[in-house]
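Researcher: Can you fold this with FE2/S2 (inorganic) cluster in place?
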Amino acid sequence: MTSVAEQERGSPASGKPRASGGDNRMKMLEATMKRHQYQADALIEVLHTAQELFGYLDNDLLLYVAHSLKVPPSRVFGVATFYHFFSLKPQGEHTCVICMGTACYVKGAANLVAAVENLCHIKSGETTPDGKVSLMTARCLGACGIAPAVVLDGEVVGMLTPESLTERVKGWVS
Ligand code: FES
């Protein structure tokens, strides 16, 4: 089944990422690479951001990063497969990535994590046994203006409360 992330991501390998349907994750990834002046040294940092935004790193995304940072794809794939914290496959059917960066943390991100952990009976970094929901945390997603920020199935949503987040995630578990 094609994931929402795949549908929305478009084809970054073409060198021209598409950001449609309100999906600004490619723009956020681009901003991270720009901030690092497209330096090859920033590869791990950029892959971290990509995973935080998309939930996992697929081939197109890895190729896009390789192309943007002018790093051989073999090195990018090597790094992505070497470190256990990178995932090359989608995890649960639905993904909830909660930003725990400073701006989001001070606006109560930890309460959001607790709310989803309680609702789904999983800890951050885990997927429910039925494969429905994966919960992850991220460092700054680059959306501090709408803190606390959460990526719900690829959609960046801001200013959530434990109640409003629970309301959204509830639909995934019922
Ligand atoms: S700290 Fe959460 S988006 Fe920046």
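Model: Folded with FE2/S2 (inorganic) cluster in place. Residues 1-22 have pLDDT under 50 and may be disordered.
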